[in-house]
């Protein structure tokens, strides 16, 4: 290498330019498992409001099955890796050539256990879908070795537990069961060949609009967030154990709890480019508790209200961030992602 080229290369390395490019080129696919924080269109159109207006009005301009006005976590992780967002598994017939970016197996409303009357593929079943593609030689273990896996778990197991008669006291014994099953799933993904697995910490469930609505969107529920902290503590212990068992750094926790909390407390991201004056109030909400964003009556009349600018809101609906909200979270998480890769 010429001295001048060597000098330039050293500068680029110091700035992180060369490292970032090599990181992006190294990983060829993104495979996604989980729920609505990562789903890009797997749910049946008849089951979810995510296929109805006003979902998707920011991106791609129409409903796409994403639980937001635009992009979701999957899209931002793909962007970080320099990849196009992988298509939803349920839509893979729409173009086999698109499979080169990976596949998204996440289903909104799902968990590690069965939820919503057992009609949604839980995480084990989603991994089964992927295993079948490997068995059919659509993908190989080598493909997985040079890929990144995103695993999203946003709390549907707990919502289902409480909806089916579970109590807050009962959560203390149920949370370890959830983490244990998640660990089994993570270990299975690793044995299939994965070398880089991102798993989300639980966001502050007590700050979701469906919870803060009772305080007119002014206050988070501290009791729920205590349970979330217990989940995240067990997750940290589980991931550390998995990494130690294999003497690797395969698994990385994406800290949605602190990133969500930071955005909510600062009413935007730290750099100040995104501002949310009332961060706990959603942009889109049903006109009453029995309705939700996207609901209409039999004549098609809207049964929801919509804010004037989704970019001014952190939350899109009762549980999910706007595209601007996810962007604010991503800007906080980007440095830790860079360290992992």
How would you sum up this structure, described in words?
The chain is of the alpha/beta class and 341 residues long. The protein has a single domain, classed as Rossmann fold. 41% of the residues lie in helices and 9% in strands. The chain has helices spanning 3-15, 17-26, 73-81, 123-135, 141-145, 156-163, 168-191, 209-212, 222-245, 256-266, 323-340, and strands at 29-33, 87-88, 102-104, 147-151, 197-200, 251-254, 284-286, 304-306. Helix 7 (168-191) runs parallel beside helix 9 (222-245). It is globular, with a radius of gyration of 20 Å. The two termini are 26 Å apart.
Question: What is the fold's blueprint, element by element?
Answer:
Layout lengths: L2 H13 L1 H10 L2 E5 L39 H9 L5 E2 L13 E3 L18 H13 L5 H5 L1 E5 L4 H8 L4 H24 L5 E4 L8 H4 L9 H24 L5 E4 L1 H11 L17 E3 L17 E3 L16 H18 L1
Parallel strand pairs: 1-3, 1-4, 2-3, 4-5, 5-6
Antiparallel strand pairs: 7-8
Question: Concise description?
Answer:
By secondary structure, this protein is of the alpha/beta class. The protein has helices spanning 3-15, 17-26, 73-81, 123-135, 141-145, 156-163, 168-191, 209-212, 222-245, 256-266, 323-340, and strands at residues 29-33, 87-88, 102-104, 147-151, 197-200, 251-254, 284-286, 304-306. It is built from eleven helices and eight strands.
Beta-strand residue fraction = 5-15%
Q: Give me the Rg, rounded.
A: 20 Å
Strand order of the largest sheet: 2-3-1-4-5-6
Instruction: Just name the CATH architecture.
Output: 3-Layer(aba) Sandwich
Q: Helix/strand/pairing class, anyone?
A: alpha/beta
* CATH class group: Alpha Beta
General form:
globular
What is CATH's topology name?
Answer: Rossmann fold
GO molecular function: hydrolase activity, acting on ester bonds
Protein name: SGNH hydrolase-type esterase domain-containing protein
Signal peptide: 1-20
Pfam family, one: Lipase_GDSL
């Amino acid at each position: 290498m010429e001295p001048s080229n060597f000098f330039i290369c050293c500068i680029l390395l110091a700035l992180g330019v060369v490292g970032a490019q090599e990181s992006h080129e190294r990983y060829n696919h993104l495979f996604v498992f989980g729920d609505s924080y990562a789903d890009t269109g797997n749910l049946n159109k008849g089951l979810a409001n995510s296929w109805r207006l006003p979902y998707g009005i920011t991106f791609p301009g129409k409903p796409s099955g994403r639980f937001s006005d635009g992009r979701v976590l999957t899209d931002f992780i793909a962007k970080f890796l320099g990849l196009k967002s992988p298509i939803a598994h349920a839509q893979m017939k729409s173009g086999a050539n698109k499979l080169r970016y990976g596949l998204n197996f996440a289903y909104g409303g799902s968990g590690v256990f069965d939820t919503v009357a057992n009609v949604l593929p839980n995480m084990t079943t989603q991994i089964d879908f992927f295993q079948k593609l490997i068995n059919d030689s659509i993908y190989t273990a080598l493909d997985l070795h040079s890929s990144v896996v995103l695993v999203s778990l946003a709390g549907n197991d707990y919502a289902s537990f409480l909806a089916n008669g579970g109590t807050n006291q009962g959560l203390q014994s149920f949370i370890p069961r959830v983490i244990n099953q998640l660990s089994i799933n993570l270990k299975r993904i690793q044995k299939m060949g994965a070398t880089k697995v991102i798993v989300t910490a639980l966001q502050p469930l007590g700050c979701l609009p469906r919870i803060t609505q009772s305080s007119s969107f002014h206050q988070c529920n501290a009791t729920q967030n205590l349970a979330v902290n217990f989940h995240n503590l067990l997750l940290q212990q589980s991931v550390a154990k998995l990494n130690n068992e294999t003497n690797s750094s395969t698994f990385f926790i994406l800290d949605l709890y602190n990133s969500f909390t930071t955005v909510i407390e600062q009413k935007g991201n730290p750099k100040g480019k995104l501002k949310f004056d009332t961060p706990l109030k959603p942009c889109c909400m049903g006109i009453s508790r029995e309705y939700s964003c996207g609901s209409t009556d039999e004549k098609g009349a809207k049964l929801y209200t919509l804010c004037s600018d989704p970019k001014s809101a952190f939350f899109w609906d009762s549980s999910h961030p706007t595209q601007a909200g996810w962007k604010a979270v991503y800007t906080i998480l980007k440095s830790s992602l860079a360290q992992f890769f």
